[in-house]
């Protein structure tokens, strides 16, 4: 309901500013400004009603289940070893 009220107030503010600016260009009568203002107001009301509908945006309430990722059976482990000249590090595959 807050969305509809805020949309209504925004459109009313814009329509009020248009109504105060229109008398300078009023050659055919003031009915054009009233029609524009009422069209904006009606569009805001209808748009607010559509935006506030209870339908989900997509999926119709369906959410996929959780995804479980299994760890691989083998992993790479860093291992220190002596190569005869000094300590070095190599990666070794360890499987459980």
UniProtKB/TrEMBL annotation:
Residues annotated as transmembrane: 31-51
Signal sequence interval, chain numbering: 1-27
Alphabetized UniProt keyword annotations: Membrane, Signal, Transmembrane, Transmembrane helix
Record's protein name: Uncharacterized protein
Organism listed in the record: Afipia massiliensis
């Amino acid at each position: 309901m807050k969305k509809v009220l805020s949309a209504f107030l925004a459109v009313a503010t814009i329509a009020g500013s248009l109504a105060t600016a229109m008398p300078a260009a009023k050659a055919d009568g003031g009915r054009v400004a009233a029609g524009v203002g009422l069209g904006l107001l009606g569009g805001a009301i209808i748009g607010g009603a559509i935006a506030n509908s209870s339908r989900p945006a997509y999926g119709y309430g369906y959410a996929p289940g959780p995804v479980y990722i299994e760890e691989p059976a083998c992993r790479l482990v860093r291992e220190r070893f002596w190569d005869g000249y000094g300590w070095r590090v190599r990666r070794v595959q360890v499987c459980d």
